[in-house]
Design goal:
Elements (H helix, E strand, L loop, with lengths): L3 E9 L8 E9 L2 E7 L11 E10 L2 E6 L9 H9 L2 H17 L2 E6 L6 H6 L9 E4 L3 E2 L10 E2 L7 H6 L7 E5 L19 H12 L4 E6 L2 H9 L4 E4 L5 H10 L2 E3 L3 H8 L10 H21 L2 E2 L15 H11 L4 H8 L1 H7 L15 E5 L14 E4 L2 E2 L16
The structure holds zinc ion.
Length: 409
């Protein structure tokens, strides 16, 4: 016998970027959407059988396309320094808590951008893994000897090519992460660093990764590092500060994803006292404005933008930073529905999740319930009314055991 549930949504945002719908009746059969239609009162439906969310907005589960689960985003310097050197056993409760934070903010799928021990990837393979969050992990990223990237990865051996190094990678990884520039400068405005790898080296990695169905995500700032990654066929550009118009046009043409991590700059500005001496507040604020300008342009050009927070970066907290990043998308000119598309279905595509991110007939009935009208969003994502998984309310939502974790800060 099939189980049928009816849900009345006050408003529905389906993740396609299309207009917000109001008074929508969701018919769910065996955990999947069997109908999504305008609600017509007195349509032969027994209203006692309908779950009434007419005071709520229903939207797809969020996807954070860029986090680092081993770091907490704390502004405490001792805590950050500890997280950078802590071993797997010390970081396990930290990673676990971050997954709970993500889940409680409606982030049901997340891509970890790497840590130097491959800890997030190892954690996913244990029974401690959060049962209701999908984690895609790159393990450890690759960078060139002597260049930026040591915090989240390692470098190929002496005389070893990048593609050969990737070839001895843990096969459990979901995507390959390559670092192809320096850190975006918060001291010198618009400073561009040399690329770490050539287009040919990156192309080899893309071709090799494709043989096992893996995508390549590339940390890149500045025109040349980004240009090479796009030309090589890499799937997503992470950060992309100061990449410029030509790269955005190329990304639109080649369907490359961009994960702009704008909030990182706002968080640096807000927590400037904790950033350290290698920074200039005015430069950080100009970086933020420049990145918002690039995002506005990306929207106009039709670039595939997936929302990612870089949670774990200073002041960028797991879960709640999604709301902050979404607000910045709106500031750059994205409508609420377009912002939610970047934070849901675009992220799902980038992570390779087919049955996730769009609320349409035939797909899994996995969604978030936010109390209030769409005008309350994205703020209300931090106080969700409910989370539904395959047609059923999650039993785990709000049952978040808070432990005393000294490493967390
Ligand atoms: Zn990152």
């Amino acid at each position: 016998m099939s189980a049928t549930t009816y849900i009345l949504a006050g408003w529905l945002i389906d993740g396609s970027g299309g207009p917000v719908q109001d008074k929508v009746l969701l018919k769910i059969v065996d955990g999947r959407f069997a109908g999504i239609d305008k609600f017509v009162p007195g349509d032969g439906l027994d209203l006692d059988q309908v779950i009434d969310f007419s005071h709520c907005t229903i939207l797809p589960p969020l996807v954070d396309s860029h986090v680092h689960l081993f770091m907490s985003g704390t502004t405490s310097r001792p805590a950050r320094e500890h997280q950078l050197v802590a071993d797997y056993d010390q970081l396990r409760p930290v990673i676990s808590q971050h997954l709970h934070y993500l889940f409680s903010h409606g982030v049901l799928a997340v891509r970890d951008g790497g840590d130097k021990g491959g800890y997030a990837l190892a954690f996913r393979q244990t029974k401690e893994m959060h049962p209701e969050v999908i984690l895609k992990a790159v393990g450890r990223g690759w960078h060139l000897q002597g260049r930026y990237g040591g915090l989240i990865g390692r470098c190929p051996g002496q005389g070893e090519s990048l593609v050969a190094a990737c070839g001895r990678e843990d096969q459990a990884i979901d995507q390959v992460k390559v670092v192809n520039s320096g850190f975006n400068s918060i001291k010198v405005f618009g400073l561009e660093t040399e690329p770490q790898f050539s287009t040919a080296e990156l192309t080899e990695v893309v071709v090799a990764a494709a043989k096992t169905g893996k995508k390549v995500m590339v940390h890149a700032n500045g025109r040349e590092p980004v240009r090479r990654a796009i030309l090589a066929g890499c799937h997503s550009i992470e950060h992309g500060f100061f990449m410029g118009r030509e790269n955005l046009e190329l990304m639109a043409e080649k369907d490359t994803f961009w994960v702009p991590t704008v909030f990182t700059m706002k968080a640096f500005a807000a927590n400037f006292a904790h950033v350290g001496s290698h920074a200039d507040l005015q430069v950080i604020e100009k970086n933020l404005q420049h990145q918002l300008g690039q995002l506005t342009l990306a929207r106009q050009l039709g670039v595939n933008v997936a929302l990612g927070t870089d949670a774990g970066s200073l002041g960028v907290l797991h879960g709640e930073s999604m709301v902050e990043e979404m607000k910045l998308f709106q500031k750059a000119g994205y409508s609420l529905a377009e912002t939610i598309r970047c934070a849901t279905s675009n992220g799902a595509r980038l992570l390779g999740l087919d049955d996730f991110g769009l609320l349409v007939k035939g797909k899994a009935a996995t969604f978030l319930v936010a109390r209030g009208a769409p005008s309350q969003l994205p703020r209300k994502l931090s106080y969700l009314e409910s989370i539904y998984l395959n047609g059923q309310p999650s039993a785990l939502y709000r049952k978040n055991p808070v432990k005393n974790i000294t490493t967390q800060g």
